[in-house]
């Protein structure tokens, strides 16, 4: 069996955020704004909050 390993050709920084515990500060969003790829290491339930906050920042 052959495993496919994803490869990324990124020209922007990679953002990593963890242990948000339901709180996502505007300062964190500003730091992640220029990232093409963001890795969230933590609870998946926060994903909706991150997406909502990210969309609000982008407007």
Topology:
Elements: E1 14-18, H1 26-32, E2 37-41, H2 47-58
Parallel strand pairs: 1-2
The share of residues in extended strands comes to 15-25%
Overall outline: globular
Please identify the structural class as seen in this structure. alpha+beta
**How are helices and strands ordered from N to C?**
EHEH
> Which range best describes the helical content: under 10%, 10-25%, 25-40%, 40-55%, 55-70% or over 70%?
25-40%
- Alpha-carbon Rg, integer: 13 Å
Count of spatially separate domains: 1
Please outline what is shown here.
With 59 residues, the chain is of the alpha+beta class.
Task: Describe what you observe in this structure.
With 59 residues, the chain is of the alpha+beta class. It has one domain. The chain contains 2 helices and 2 strands; from the N terminus they run βαβα. It has helices at 26-32, 47-58, and strands spanning 14-18, 37-41. Strands 1-2 form a two-stranded parallel sheet. The radius of gyration is 13 Å and the shape is globular. The chain starts with 13 loop residues before the first strand and ends with a helix. The model has no long low-confidence stretch (mean pLDDT 77).
């Amino acid at each position: 069996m052959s495993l496919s390993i994803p490869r990324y050709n990124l020209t922007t920084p990679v953002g990593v955020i963890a242990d948000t515990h339901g709180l996502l500060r505007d300062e964190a969003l500003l730091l992640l704004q220029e990232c093409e790829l963001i890795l969230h290491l933590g609870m998946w339930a926060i994903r909706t909050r991150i997406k909502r906050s990210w969309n609000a920042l982008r407007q």
